[in-house]
Every structure is written in C-alpha cells, then in structure tokens.
Write a structure and sequence with these properties.
Oligomer: homodimer
CATH architecture of the largest domain in chain A: 4-Layer Sandwich
Helix content of chain A: 25-40%
Distance between the termini of chain A: 14 Å
Number of domains of chain A: 2
Largest sheet of chain A: 7 strands, mixed
CATH topology of the largest domain in chain A: L-amino peptidase D-ALA esterase/amidase
CATH superfamily of the largest domain in chain A: L-amino peptidase D-ALA esterase/amidase
Largest interface: A-B, 72 and 72 residues
Strand content of chain A: 15-25%
Shape of chain A: globular
Strand order of the largest sheet of chain A: 9-16-11-15-12-13-14
Number of strands of chain A: 16
Number of helices of chain A: 11
Radius of gyration of chain A: 22 Å
Order of helices and strands of chain A: EEEHEHEHHEEEHEEHEHHHEEEHEEH
Chain lengths: 409, 409
C-alpha cells in the first residue's frame, strides 16, 4: 500500500559528514521488496550515548536490549531494520535481538552491549534475524561518511517522506554539529506506527550529561506531539556523541558550558518531531496548540495534550471549522483547574472567546481564511496563572481511516 | 444534516405508565423546526432524586443548577431542551437556567430547586429561554402518563433512534419498575455529542440510598462506554423515585433490601449506555472488551478503556481486521502492570495469542467470520491476578469523519 506524499512534507536538509559517524543502508529483504530496510551506523571509539524509550508496558525486544546496553553509556554501533518490529515475539525475539547485536559487534570489533538496536514494522512475527546477520558484512564494508540521506530513507516504513534535521551549537567557543534522522507515523500496512529518532553529534559529552539533556529535550518535543494518542511499543530516541570535536572538556554533570548545545539539541528534536506530525496518517493540516494562563506548566501541558488528542477538535480542523466549543470541551475534559468564566480561545491569532463567552462581533474573516491554510494555530488562555505549554498534532481525516481501517487478511 | 439510522439500532421497548410520573414533549422552536425539542416531566410529591454529572471542568449552566438542586434530595419536575446546550454562556446562561426552572416551578406548584434541568445542543450561544418559558404552560396542561415514547424522541438531537429501557425489581416481595430514556452520541451539527439519561422508578427510596446505588451503577455502565474519548460538558444521569409503590420501608442507607433493585437499576443503565454506543457517530459495529487477569479491578478497567479508546483498535475493527497487535499496544499504553510474556488475546472467543506470542495454527476461519458481524468481542487475559472489567465502544469509520468534519460556517 503506497500513500501519496503528505501535503505537509518538507525537504530533507543537506546532511554533511559528521566526524566519528559512518553509515549506510542495504536491502536485506526483511519484509519489503526492492527497497532498503537495514541501516547500520559505525561510531568512533569513545562515543557516549543517551536514550529515551516508549512508556508502553509491552515494548519490543530491541527496547529491552537498548535499556540494558544504555547502562554502559558507550556506543560503537547502531543497527536498525524496517519491516518487522520484533514486538510480542517472546524469548525468540530477545534471541533475535542478541544475534543481530552479536553479528554487528563482531564486524565493529566491539562488545555486544555497545551495539544499539531498533526495529519497526509488523508485530507478532518472528524477526528473520538471519537476513540481518547475512546482510551486515557487505553493509559494513560499504559504510561511508556521506550516506545520511540513504540512512534517513532506509529506516522508513510507510513514511511518505524521509526526515532529517541539522543544527550547530557552541561549546566553549568551538562549533559542534548535531544532526539526526527520524521516522514515524507511517504504518507498516496495516500495523502500528512507530517513531524512531537517531541523533548524532561530534561533541564530547559524558553520558550522564547527555542523558539529562536528552530527557529534557524530549519533554518539549516528542512528548508534545500526538497523531492519534496511541503509543507504539517501539518508540525510541537515541543520542550519540562521538567526541571528535575539539572543545574544552565538559563536566560529568554538564552545566552552563552545555547551554547552547542543549538549545540546539532541543531544536533538532523539535524539528524532527514536527516532521513526524507532518507525516501523520492522513494529515492535511499541522495544528499548533498554545496554552497559557494555567496554574502551572504541568497543568498547561495536560490541557494542551487534551486538545491535541481530541478527535472532535481534530475533525473540526479537518473540516476547516474554527469550532471553539470543542476546544472548550477539550480544556474541560483534561481534568486540570479551569474556570469557565475566565477562559479565552483564539484561532489564527484572533480571540473568538474571552471570559467565558463569545466576543460579540469578532472578525470572522481572518479566522475563516486561517482555517483554510495548512498550519493551524489554536491558543487558549486559562486566565488563572503563569503556566504555559505548546503541543502539536495533525487533523483527523478520511485518510486516517483509509490507512488504518483497510482489511488485512 | 440528517443521518441514516444506525445499523446497530434497537427498537424502543413498550414503556407503560409509571405511577407518579406524567410527561410530554412540545415543539418550542429552540433550534430545530418541525420537531419536538422540549420535554417536561411532573413528579409526584415526595419524589427523591439522585444525579451523576460530567467531570468536564467547563460544564454547562444546567449542570451547575442540578448540582445545587440535588442537595435538597427532592424533585417535582424535570425540563429538558434539545438544540442549545447552554454551555459557555456565562452569567446569562445561569440566568436562563434559573428562569426556566422558575417557570416550571410556578406551573408545578413547587420550589425552584425541586426542578431539574438539562440542555443539549449547540454551545456558546445564549439559550432562548423565553421560548421555553412560553411553551411550558401548554406543555404542562398536556402532560399524561403514557407519553414516554414522545419524551424519548423529544430529547434527541441528531441521535438516529430513540432510546429506552424497562426492568422490574423486587423490594420486600413487592414488584417495582425502573424505566428510563437516554440520548447520546448524535451531534448537534456539528457541535459536541452529549449523553443525557433520565431514569424513573415508582419505588420509595431515600435520596442517600438512591445516590449511592446510582453512583455504583454508573461506574459499570455509562463510565465503561466510549465513542471517541471526548467528554461532553453536559453529560447527565438523573434517577427519580416517586415512592408510589407499596413496599416495606427502605432504610436511609439502603442495604440488603435494595439488592435486587440495584441489580435492575444497573441493567437499565447498561441497556441505555449500550444504546448510546450503538448510536455512536458512524458506528457500524458494537465492540465489547473483556479484560481479566489484571492485578486489580481498577487496573482491568483502565486497560479495558485504553483498548476502547484506541483509534488504531477501532479502525482495525472497522476494517474487519482481528489485529491483536494493536490490542497488545493498547494494553501496554494503559500504563498498568502487564507482562508481555503472560499476555493473551482472544477475538470472538478464539485465543489468537497466549503467553506473549501467537498461537501457532489457531483457527482463523471463525475469527474472520466473527469480524464480519455487527457485535465484536475482544478478550484480554493479563495472566497476573484476579482483576476483571468490561468496556464497550464502537468502531471508528468514515462516518465519524463525515459527521464531525463537515464544514459549519
């Protein structure tokens, strides 16, 4: 099942070589025919790693593998396959993961637990790891520094466009680069969508500091996007620091020296996260939701996500209807403090309701025009405090039903 | 916008007169033309009342009115209008509610706070309460004991069929009746769906005992159904006991004498709740989800609702795809204790997966046949404990997008 490219697609940026990273993609025939489905990345000695994984309680075998491997804080390789998620595959699935890591470790000359894994695709079927093991040697031989675009394509499942982001940051006056690739929200026809994101930097950053920054950056990027409120069993964000850049040493715990790096990392993650939303199943419009005036940031976040997850808000946007009534409903159902008589709602920058009622005679024309566009902005002011948060989602369209409701067997 | 009658519709049962209840419906022209949109119910002196309302933090004015009125525990009247929800209407909305209650109280010869109110329909527009006030006298004059079907139709918005349920119960050897009407899950085109449910009995039950039973019965009926996870600002369940039946006195706090009544009440509420799901927007299939083996009943309930609210599960059912992978995902995302390697999933009574893996060679034929039917059963066994719960939902189809994504302005 091939889907047309999302109307919200953006172009893959130029992705230059990053010192300490060699990568490549191969067609291992795991499920797809005639396309790449296996990506390998070799990382320089001394590379540190941080990771954030799905909170789903039934995660895939690669998630378990990565959580264990992460304890060492060191990485030399990454192997990603598309077409089979290695989820709900029991002991055999764990064995398949171990075998893949073992084969990569042998080629890379490192310990198994320095190899990270991610799988995405159909679930409940055994991963044909022999195909990975037999494809790896040739793939390893062909690794280069300038195959980022191939890697971005190789991790796709039914994503309609490849996703990448690049930023630079200063550490102690020296410029370092952060660049990453992601996949998401396409379907392994018709199984579940998965978000995978791999970010690399040439900076030298201790694993603990890396983990702390990654955790924070994920909170305001990948944890603030939603396509359909469902949580994949394989969601993975990994951040690798190859340490090849020449900058002053960074303390174990990070600190002020990493402030600019943290900013750039957040930008890369948000850029990739928004590309995932732009490729949301059936998405025709990107929706940004800004909540302010909540009693706390945490409260604002829950309200923003409640709006972002509301099927009634998302179908209204699909219908180009600035339906503030549904927005009020979604605020109320979040269960967070809200006072109906202080609530305000704006669409496209025009306040339609304030202090618990419609603004008589507000100018409808710019709102109607805004709703016809590709990028929709919704703002809510709770009028209670200083809490604020932003979330992103896409509209809910017939395309979503087409993609997810098609008969499999 | 008129929608075809749901393929899951059931027929309104015979609803005989209930001692102490006189009711009727009128066309007050609140929003609709050429149909009834105002329902009035007169209740015998001494009627006790219990109520459960939406948890939405931005509820409509009638919810605020009912919560206050409920403190008295006594009811003499109920006024329900369709076409305007009186939500997000500020002080003027509260005034409109008060005026409606006042007008009804005058006709019924009772205190304002003995009149209960419910409104459903468009939100953010002022309720034209003058139309209610001027329609009430003639409506009051025409109240009879045998217009239950008219009332069931008068509270509809874009429901595709009227909803009613009747049961009998024994209190101290005497037979009493419980019968109710409900509306739900149609849309006030295209504003939000609202569930309203009004249940009446001729039993004599103190308000405290009534409230306690209603709270319990709602937990396993209306709180276990979901159409799209959105929570209306007007959801209301009211239970009135007219005290006209001749049975031994019931203690203030209820107790064993009410055991059979509680059972019948739960049946009435569940019957009505399932009718609401059967009229879910775009519903083509009714889905029942049984969860067992969870660590507790509460945990089972969360897992059942997580499956019921999953768009990926609901679109799979729409596509007649017994996609147990998505069910596993929905179990995992509930955040409740689950062990991948103990999990089992059955569809239509056939176990497709056990102990964390597909059952090799399970019989697909009955599963495929089951998925083609109107009523789909999903069962999940966590294999951890004795917690169990059941939830109901409907599939997610193009009809849902059609109804909710149509352009309003």
């Amino acid at each position: 099942m091939t889907h047309p490219v999302s109307p919200l697609a953006v172009t893959l940026p130029e992705m230059p070589p990053l010192p300490g990273v060699r990568l490549g993609a191969a067609a291992a025939g795991i499920r797809y025919k005639g396309r790449t489905d296996l990506v390998m990345v070799e990382l320089a000695q001394g590379t540190t790693v941080a990771g954030v994984f799905t909170r789903n309680k039934c995660p895939g075998a690669p998630i378990g593998w990565c959580r264990e491997a992460l304890k060492g804080g060191q990485a030399r390789g990454l192997v990603v396959n598309a077409g089979n998620a290695n989820v709900f595959t029991g002991r055999a699935g764990e064995e398949a993961a171990r075998r893949s890591a073992e084969a990569a470790a042998k080629l890379l000359g490192c310990a198994e637990e320095e190899v990270f894994l991610a799988s995405t695709g159909v679930i409940g079927e055994q991963l044909p790891y022999e195909r990975i093991v037999s494809a790896l040697p040739a793939l390893h031989n062909a690794l280069t520094e300038d195959t980022w675009h191939d890697a971005a394509r190789g991790i796709m499942t039914t994503d309609t466009f490849p996703k990448g982001a690049v930023r630079t940051a200063k550490i102690g006056g020296q410029t370092v680069r952060i660049q990453g690739i992601a996949k998401g929200s396409g379907m392994i026809a018709p199984d579940m969508a998965t978000m995978l994101c791999f970010v690399f930097t040439d900076a030298a950053i201790p694993a603990a500091a890396l983990q702390s920054m990654l955790g924070k950056a994920v909170k305001t990027s990948f944890n603030r996007i939603t396509v359909d409120s469902d949580t994949s069993t394989s969601d993975t964000v990994l951040l690798f620091a190859t340490g090849q850049a020449d900058h002053p040493d960074v303390p174990e715990t990070g600190g002020p020296a990493l402030r600019d790096f943290a900013r750039a990392l957040s930008e890369v993650l948000l850029d990739l996260a928004l590309q995932v939303v732009r490729d949301g199943e059936g998405a025709q419009k990107l929706i940004r939701i800004d909540v302010e005036g909540a009693v706390s940031h945490g409260s604002a976040e829950k309200i923003a996500m409640s709006i972002a997850n509301s099927p009634l808000v998302k179908t209204a946007v699909a219908g180009e209807d600035a339906n503030w009534g549904r927005i009020v409903m979604a605020v109320g159902k979040a269960g967070e403090p809200a006072d109906r008589d202080k609530l305000g709602v704006a669409v496209g920058g025009v306040w339609m309701a304030r202090n618990g009622g419609v603004i008589d005679g507000y100018d409808e024309a710019p709102v109607v025009a805004h709703m016809k566009g590709r990028e929709i902005n919704i703002a809510v002011d709770l009028g209670l405090g200083k809490g604020r948060a932003t979330a992103w989602t896409c509209d809910l369209t017939h395309g979503y039903i087409d993609i997810n409701g098609s008969y499999r067997s």
